[in-house]
Amino acid sequence: MLGELTLWSDPRMSRMKLEIVILLTLAFFAFAAMPSGLGHSGDVIISYWTGIPPVIDGVISEDEWINASKTSIQLRENTGWQTPAEVFVMNDAENIYICVKVQCEHPRTVDCIIIRFDEWHDGTLTVGDENYAEVCGDGDFYDGYWDGCWRSDQHLDLEAAIGYTGKYWVAEFNIPMRSEDEQDLDVEPGAVIGFHIGFWSGSRGGAGWPDPTFSSTNPSGWADLILSATGASAELAISHMLVDPSPVIVNRYFIVSCRIDNIGDLSAYDVTATIWTPPNITYAPGEGTTHFVGRIEPGQSKTCVWSLKAVSEGTFRINVTVSGFNTEEVLRTVEFTAIDPPNSPPIAILNVDKSAVDVNETVLFNASNSYDPDGKIIYYFFDFGDGTNSGWITTPTIYHTYSSPGEYNASLIVMDDDGAESLVSGQAYILITVVPEFPSATMLTLMLTTLIATILLKKRKTKPELIS
Fold first, then answer.
1. Going from the N-terminus, what domains does the chain have, and what CATH number goes with each?
2. Most CB contacts within 10 A, which of 163, 319, 327, 379?
């Protein structure tokens, strides 16, 4: 995103956009100046400005986090298990507000959600630098810091709450940017700090993002949290970002869709949306990175959709940014997994409009009920059983006539888009019975007339002559 940043000379450019440009430029030079080998993963979360603090109660109320940035992530454990989560982040001049929503099928009171901060943004664990906030399933929460090991602070200067709804833990935090406690954060709006999320599951063990192996001896994998500058208010929001299907199948097209909301009160915006993909993700023919979404009125929404394809297995992150003239650019990230399962063969099902016909009577062969469990059928091969066939064709129906009476075993083979052919199945065979062509009424009349004439002629020839 930084590499694509453009500075406009338009004098109408808003102070908000200027602040963001300056902020991102400073962040870029801060990243470039870091010594090599330090533990920053390259993942970025941008906090949005809010004038309305959330209620910290472990429940996501309607519109409570509407001003926050929203990022979908996968919390991973280094031996393989993972669970999806969503992170909401916003800030004002005094506090950082963070909500972490974690999928958890088997909740326990010992489950914990932990947020760690690398205040100096140096990617190392240093005394006086790092601190954390933690909340557990039993409702207890902690404020802590790094002092050669992670310690709990005796002064609870933050707010935290947790709740379980459906199959999700919801942890909400209100973390002061500055407090009188020297063990806490001491940052300003617009700062860039390190950021890590951990999840301890009593039934599965520990997981983390972006790096699952984060520990006291391996403090790698910090994401970068960019706090919003004072007064920079987002009037556009991205909600309901979706990848379908999930998981994605390698070399099959999938869609990424997002709903874009105008959450402002006064202005309509002509909105554009841009998607940022890794090299392993390609675009459908004619698809582009940037879509003009159109004008969105206050309180209204529009949906933007991209058609993409993963060319290899793995877990990928896609960023979508939206913007309108004189609005803060809004970013949202979705993470998904692409798999390459073994191909399942298609299923051939053959039907006919009639299975008993006369010689030269037309039969309709229909393969429309055939299907592929994990793709689509692209070719059909009809064998009519009389020594002829259709060859590989792309249409599921065909007509055929039989020129001789008899019984014929017709069959069907289908091929899917991975080149797999259907297996032998009773549903792919039909017995066609062809009977001799029955004479027409005219022909019957002619034959009957001929027969009668022949009989009369024979009788006349055999009648004895009368003796006079």
1. 2-339 (2.60.40.1190), 351-435 (2.60.40.10)
2. 327
Lookup: tokens for 415: 């091929």
Which pTM was predicted? Answer: 0.51
Per-residue confidence in pLDDT tens, the chain, 468 aa: 333 333 333 333 344 444 444 444 444 444 443 333 345 556 888 888 888 899 999 999 877 888 888 888 999 887 778 899 999 999 988 999 999 999 998 899 889 999 999 888 777 777 877 788 888 988 888 888 888 787 787 667 889 999 998 899 999 999 999 887 777 888 988 888 988 999 988 878 888 898 777 665 555 678 889 888 766 556 788 878 899 998 999 998 999 999 999 887 777 888 999 998 999 999 999 898 999 999 998 889 999 999 999 999 999 989 898 888 667 678 888 889 999 988 899 999 999 999 999 999 999 999 999 999 988 999 999 999 999 999 999 999 999 999 999 999 999 999 998 899 998 888 899 999 999 876 666 666 777 777 787 777 776 665 555 554
Tell me if residue 241 falls in helix, strand or coil. strand
What is the phi/psi pair of residue 426, to 5°?
A: -60, -25
Cα gap 51→450, rounded to integer Å: 106
* Contact (Cβ atoms closer than 8 angstroms) between residue 91 and residue 189: yes
Long-range contacts of the stretch 420-424 (C-beta < 8 A, 24+): 420/343, 420/344, 420/345, 420/346, 421/345, 421/346, 422/345, 422/346, 422/347, 422/348, 422/370, 423/345
